[in-house]
Design brief:
503 residues, alpha/beta, Arc Repressor Mutant, subunit A, Aspartate Aminotransferase, domain 1, 3 domains, eight-stranded mixed sheet, three-stranded antiparallel sheet
C-alpha cells in the first residue's frame, strides 16, 4: 500500500500534465529525465507502477505504459520482470553550478580588447511582452492561425525520410541548399521578374545575415552608404559597425527621393516595395531614375524586397533587380516573413563573383546552413503550398487593411494615412503634438502596441509630424476594430495633456 508521503513525493517530482501543451507522453518523459539528470532520482530508484503513475499524474494507463516503454528504449529506465521499473545506473547527473569564490586575480580589460567599430547600436525590436498584449499592432510576425501547419508537417516528414536524410546529414553535401535554390529560380524569383542561375543565389539564415554579409564585404572606413530616412535600423547598424558612413536620404510618397545627397554615396540601400516604415511603393518612373543615377555615378544598389508578392491585387511592380541591365542591384529577400520568422530562410541574388565572395564569408561563420529546413521549404514550394499560402496571405492582409482603415477613419478622423496596396503595415500621421515615447508607453499600459515613428529615424527632426507604424499581420482580425478604437482613445487623451510638445 502506498503512503500519502510517498504519493506527495512523486507528485512534486511529476507535476500533473497539461492537456493543452505538448503531448502527455513527452511531458512525463521530460519530467522523469530532468529529475534523473538533476540527481533528484538517483540510480536504482524504484519508479511507480504504470497504474500508480496514471493515478498520480492524471493520464490514462496506456499513456503511462508508453512512457515507461520510451524511457526503457532510450536507456533511462530498467524494466525488471515481476519487480518493476528502476532508474538506470548508467545515467550521470548534471553537475550543479556552485558559487565561485571571490576572485583574487585581476580580470582582463575587456573594453580594451574588444573591437567595437562604429557608433553604439540602437535596435528597434518589439518588446518581449508583445505576445501578452491584447492589441499587438506590430510588424514582422505572422498570424499562426493562417499557417498551413498540416502541409508543412507533410513536407517535413518527406524531408526526414531515409533517402532524404542520407543526402543532407553529411557535411558538405549541400543538397538542401541546391534543392531550394532550384525552386527559388523556377517558382519564386520569376514572379519578381528576376532570372538567375544557381551560382547567382546564396541561401542565408535570414535577412539579418544578409545585412551582415554585405556589410563585411562592402562596408569599410571611407565608404558612404545611403539609407532611407525614416528607414529600417538593422542594415544601418550592420553598415555602421564595419566603419562605413551611413547617410540618411529622404523618402516621399514614391519612395527614395533622387536628391543631391544621392551622388555622395558609394552604395544605396532601399526597400522599393512597401518601404520600411512608411509602406509606400516606389513608382516605376522613380525606379528607372534610380537605376540611371546609379549607372551615372558608379553606384551599387542593395534592394531589400522584404514583403515580395503581397500586393493585394496580385500585380506587383517588378523588382529593381528585374529591370537592371547593368547588374548594379544586389537583391535581398526572405521566405521567413511569409512562413515564419523562426525558420530563418533568407537569400541573396547577385552576380556570380559577388556570390562566391559572400559564400566564403558565410563559411567563416557557419560551415553550412541546416539542410533539413531547406529541403522542407523546397518541397513546400514545389508542391504548390507556397503559392496557396501567398494567395491566402494577400486576401487576409487586404481584409485586415480594410478593417484598419475603416476603424481609423472613425477613431482618428484628423489623422492622415493612405490605404495600403500591399504588405502588412500602415503609416499613421497624427494630428496635434505628441511625445512619441510617452505615447508608446501609454499605449502599452492600455494593451495597445505599435511602433513609434522616430524609432526609424537617424535624425530626430526627420518627422515633420508625429507618426506611428501600425502592423496588422499578427493581430486577429476580430480584434482590429476594438484595438483601433482603444488606440484612438489613448492618442486623443495624450494630445490633450498640457506640455506635450515633442515629436
Amino acid at each position: 500500500m502506498r503512503s500519502s508521503q510517498h504519493d506527495l513525493m512523486w507528485r512534486q517530482l511529476l507535476p500533473k500534465v497539461r492537456k493543452h501543451d505538448e503531448p502527455l507522453q513527452v511531458q512525463l518523459c521530460t519530467a522523469f529525465v530532468t529529475a534523473m539528470l538533476e540527481g533528484r532520482l538517483p540510480a536504482g530508484t524504484r519508479l511507480p507502477s504504470s497504474r500508480d503513475l496514471a493515478l498520480l499524474t492524471g493520464v490514462s494507463r496506456n499513456t503511462a505504459v508508453l512512457v515507461y516503454e520510451r524511457l526503457v528504449a532510450e536507456g533511462y529506465v530498467d524494466s525488471r520482470p515481476r519487480d518493476g521499473f528502476f532508474v538506470c545506473g548508467a545515467i550521470t547527473p548534471t553537475q550543479q553550478a556552485r558559487a565561485s569564490p571571490a576572485p583574487t586575480a585581476q580580470p582582463p580589460d575587456w573594453s580594451a580588447r574588444m573591437h567595437r567599430a562604429g557608433p553604439e547600436i540602437v535596435w528597434a525590436d518589439r518588446p518581449p511582452i508583445w505576445r501578452e498584449v491584447r492589441y499587438p499592432f506590430i510588424y514582422g510576425q505572422f498570424d499562426p492561425k493562417q499557417f498551413p501547419l498540416s502541409q508543412w508537417r507533410q513536407c517535413s516528414r518527406q524531408a526526414l525520410e531515409v533517402k532524404a536524410v542520407d543526402r543532407w546529414w553529411q557535411e558538405g553535401e549541400n543538397v538542401g541548399e541546391s534543392q531550394l535554390i532550384d525552386q527559388l529560380i523556377r517558382r519564386v524569383l520569376p514572379r519578381r521578374g528576376i532570372a538567375a542561375t544557381h551560382d547567382q543565389v546564396l541561401l542565408t539564415l535570414g535577412r539579418q545575415q544578409n545585412f551582415y554579409l554585405l556589410a563585411r564585404l562592402f562596408a569599410r572606413p571611407g565608404s558612404v552608404i545611403g539609407v532611407e530616412e525614416p528607414g529600417y535600423r538593422d542594415p544601418r547598424n550592420a553598415f555602421a559597425h564595419d566603419g562605413a558612413q551611413v547617410l540618411p536620404l529622404p523618402v516621399d510618397e514614391q519612395g527614395l527621393q533622387i536628391s543631391p545627397a544621392l551622388a555622395q554615396c558609394d552604395y544605396l540601400y532601399c526597400t522599393p516595395a512597401y518601404q520600411c516604415p512608411t509602406g509606400v511603393t516606389m513608382s516605376q518612373a522613380r525606379r528607372l531614375a534610380l537605376l540611371e543615377h546609379a549607372q551615372r555615378h558608379d553606384q551599387v544598389l542593395f534592394e531589400d524586397d522584404d514583403d515580395p508578392e503581397t500586393e493585394y491585387d496580385g500585380h506587383a511592380l517588378p523588382a529593381l533587380k528585374a529591370i537592371d541591365p547593368a547588374q548594379r542591384v544586389i537583391y535581398l529577400s526572405s521566405l521567413s516573413k511569409l512562413l515564419s520568422p523562426g525558420l530563418g530562410i533568407g537569400y541573396i541574388v547577385a552576380p556570380a563573383p559577388v556570390i562566391e565572395q559572400l559564400r566564403q564569408l558565410q563559411r567563416l561563420m557557419i560551415r553550412q546552413i541546416p539542410g533539413n529546413n531547406q529541403i522542407t521549404a523546397a518541397l513546400f514550394i514545389q508542391q504548390g503550398h507556397y503559392d496557396r499560402l501567398l494567395q491566402q496571405a494577400r486576401e487576409n492582409l487586404q481584409l485586415r487593411a480594410l478593417a484598419v482603415t475603416r476603424a481609423l477613419r472613425e477613431a482618428l478622423p484628423d489623422a492622415e494615412f493612405a490605404m495600403p496596396s500591399g504588405g502588412a503595415t500602415l503609416w499613421l500621421k497624427l494630428a496635434g503634438r505628441h511625445d512619441l515615447l510617452s505615447l508608446y508607453y501609454a499605449g502599452v499600459a492600455k494593451g495597445v502596441l505599435f511602433d513609434p515613428g522616430n524609432a526609424f529615424c537617424l535624425d530626430p527632426d526627420t518627422l515633420t509630424r508625429p507618426s506611428i507604424r501600425l502592423g496588422f499581420g499578427s493581430i486577429a482580425q476580430e480584434l482590429i476594430a476594438p484595438g483601433i478604437q482603444l488606440l484612438g482613445q489613448v492618442i486623443n487623451s495624450h494630445a490633450r495633456r498640457p506640455g506635450v510638445v515633442r515629436s
